[in-house]
Amino acid sequence: MDHLRKSGFTVGRRDTADVGAIKRKHGVPPALESCHTALAGGYVVEGHVPADVIQQLLRERPTIVGLAVPGMPLGSPGMEAPGQKAQPYDVIAFDARGTSRIYARR
User: Rounded to two decimals, what is the model's pTM?
Assistant: First the structure.
């Protein structure tokens, strides 16, 4: 959340006991689920998606449901570890039919 705030996003937090229900409600495919689910500009943002990629999404406005970074890759926003090399990872776009594609690579 700090990463998003530092990038100019207004961030709120809602804790829930049933995170799976939130993910299903917003159309996150099970294979793309991660630790956090957010909403931004009408899109779903799942996991540790970098702020600049969210900004790109909001500029481009593609016809998708949202973006996801499955898992918690080392080096993704909020997962930095001093002395540890960042892992490469993909930011995945997904649509309402369950189709997914790589949107960005890090």
Answer: 0.88
CB 15 within 8 A of CB 1: no
Distance CA 14, CA 75 (A): 25
Distance between CA atoms of residues 47 and 52, nearest Å: 14
How many structural domains comprise the chain? 1
Q: pLDDT tens for residues 18-53? A: 999 999 999 999 999 998 999 999 999 999 999 999
Structure tokens at 87: 């892992």
Range of the domain at 88: 2-105
Q: Are 57 and 67 in contact (CB under 8 A)?
A: yes
For tokens 């949202």, the residue is 66
